[in-house]
Amino acid sequence: MLHCRKKYGCGCLFGKTTKRLFLVVLLLSWGGYMPVPAQHISPEPVLPVLVEVFYKNRKDGYIWMGADTQRAGLRMRLIQLLNERCAFQGLDKSKYLKLLPRDAFGMAAGSSGEDSSRVNDYRYTHAALEYLNDLFQGDPATRKTGDDALSRTVKEADQHYLINLLAEVSKPKDLDDLVNRLEPATSQYLLLKNALKAQLDSGNVVRIRRLSETLNNYRWMYHFHFPKFIVVNIAAAELNYYEQDSLKLNMRVVAGKPSTKTPRFAAYCDQVILYPYWNVPKSIAVNEILPFCKKNTAVLDLLRMQVLNSRGQVVNPRSINWSKITKQNFSYQFRQATGRDNALGVIKFNLTSPYSVYLHDTNLKAAFKSEKRYLSHGCVRVEKPVELADYLLEEKLDASFLNANSKGQKPVIKTVHGPVPVFILYMTADIKEGSMVQYFEDVYTLDQ
């Protein structure tokens, strides 16, 4: 976090020759961004809420506008940072440059009037906050997740954090320090950033886009500073568990088939359930199990499936006239009994998401040996469930209890104190097994 700094005065004014030279340097620093005549500037920019809050809390007037060398240098440094750094951070500089005042000559000279100065100062702040926000928590446009239960809990705190940091900036070095401090410095992030630089040098557009999205996802995950968190990369079919941003556990997973994709979301793991029931989703029940029941209910015995009525009571499947049951009038639920032959194995990691998707053990261990591990109906099967549970819970699991496979064992619910955040993402470029950058097949054809 940036510490408070002494506010500096205005400094010396430019002389005419110095001012002209400064204008030339400033104009060149814009790269390909061409200014347009001043009359094309709207009289008042559409301000985001965050910019309005920034100025409501500010007592020192303008942060960017003024003819003094310090503020002129601050303006120029922001433009330089956008032009020089964005590509290497996986960001699109045009997103921020287009927010700046278009009258480059007028702004460099300190503006042509009080109203213009105010508008231009707001525009610089808008561009700066957009850039700093994307540098801090990743560009939301690259996130591509469904439900996000994590970000909404810290949104207001994140905004105030950025406002307070920008309020401490008064000279170019302050801005440099802020930009440097907002980016993660973990080994994995730096590996990805170096890979992006290499691809920018080679001009591989596809890999540049993939690495850029992954860098933004990493900034998003890291900005929370969670003491513990889990990341499942569907494209890589891998799970990583972190503590204090350091990788502690890596394992293979089995994700959803392309026809039954694992959804992308962010949630919490709040429970570890030992000897879980498998409550069969209705889509699987009516499409896969019901047709067998119409032929012979013995399939339910083979699968160790119970039939529950609408009140949650176990009923005898032979008491049901299956010939009259259709997809439309199906009002029962299939539930697989607990044990090692349960589809969820003996451990389930409950997730607080709106999807019926969770992490779990499996009775089909051989699938982890395959390189293409996209076989499930959407849930995520984990290779090392016991090791993961031991990290999440305060007490290690009792191996003898898990191995006993007691008939009729009821589920045992253990609370995950925290709880622990879980990111289910789809990144076709990522760190493989914690140490090297690898590119993955776009199995879901989402990376278009």
Automatic annotation (TrEMBL):
Query: Which ranges does the record mark as transmembrane?
Result: 21-38
Name the pathway: Cell wall biogenesis; peptidoglycan biosynthesis
Active site per UniProt? H360, C379
- SUPFAM superfamilies attached here? L,D-transpeptidase catalytic domain-like (SSF141523)
Q: Where is the signal peptide?
A: none
- Domain L,D-TPase catalytic spans what residues? 228-402
Superkingdom of the source species: Bacteria
Q: Which GO terms describe its molecular function?
A: carboxypeptidase activity; transferase activity
UniProt entry tagged with the keyword Iron-sulfur: no
- InterPro entries (UniProt xref): LD-transpeptidase_YkuD-like, LD_TPept_cat_dom, LD_TPept_scaffold_dom, Transpep_catalytic_dom
Alphabetical GO biological process terms: cell wall organization; peptidoglycan biosynthetic process; regulation of cell shape
The protein's UniProt keywords, in alphabetical order, are: Cell shape, Cell wall biogenesis/degradation, Membrane, Peptidoglycan synthesis, Transferase, Transmembrane, Transmembrane helix
Task: Report the CDD domains cross-referenced here.
Answer: YkuD_like
Instruction: Tell me the protein family, please.
Output: Belongs to the YkuD family.
Q: What is this protein called?
A: L,D-transpeptidase catalytic domain
Which species is listed as the source?
A: Niabella drilacis (strain DSM 25811 / CCM 8410 / CCUG 62505 / LMG 26954 / E90)
